[in-house]
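<instruction>
Derive structure tokens from the sequence

<record> Sequence and structure tokens follow
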Amino acid sequence: MKFETQTISVRFVQALLSNVVTRTDYDPSWLSNTGFAPELLNLQGARITMEKFAELYRTLAIHTDDETLGMFSLPLRNGTLKYLCLCMLSAPVLSVALNRFCNFYRLINVDVQFEVSHTPEGLVRIALHEVGHLGSSRVLALELMLMLVQGVSSWMIAKKIPFVRICFPFPKPEHAAEYKHLYPGPVYFNEPTTALYMDPAYMNEPIRQDQNSLRKFLRNAPMNWFYFLETERPNTYRVRSYLTERMGQPLGLEQVASALHVSTRTLARRLADEGSSFQRIKDTLRRDLAVELLNKTRIPVADIAHKLGFEDATAFNRAFRQWTGSAPGAYRKRLQ
């Protein structure tokens, strides 16, 4: 299953729009022209694909000429990310590139500043200090800035960096379950400083990108800022990948464990160690595929139920309502 087909709570769209809709030049067509149904904003439990979220982000940034969508005192004009990356590309190794990253932000942003340092435990800390008052956008601003630095860092060295620790200074939010798709490492809340911690060995990794690959990186942004880290939860990833092509088959834990050449007990234990379970993986996969199929196709609901392995449309309707708070038919109408 492509990462793009995984879904994210519509709450993030609501947060993106919080500053945009107050602009005097705001036009609802900015959303509708992307195929996003504004009605979903008021639907409890609604979700959109990562791909659609990234498209919305890019569209809003273009229309507002602000790549941070009003989250800071001064806008970051379109092209900011491009010139940031150009500054970093000529660095020999990641440590030099991150130093340029910090200096670049010191010049353009008066509300937040990045700092790279070493901890007594021997880890590298990339801290995000709040210099100004971030107001109601604070949580989203901190979330996105950490996604940005982790995404740019990993892309520069062409390796997904598995961060040792990811810290936020605010209490655990209601949408914290989404973080497993946003941050490659364990997340902690109520910490003194917003920060990423990583193995110092990555600082010596050479920069492996160039201006040609930068074009694709910018074209897909912010998709490259977040990702499902396969190495962090390998068993969860293997089960999800195996089920993706076989959703119409009545597979249980026993059959999947056998196909993956492990015992049922061992697979269940490994999934539990990763904070997951077979049923949770299956339900999440069904939910994400259902949202994608309802959004991108005209396949009848009954056929979607069959493709996803439900006994009948009634069972699918009941499950989808539990996932999103809406029946699949009503959900699709809001997308039209």
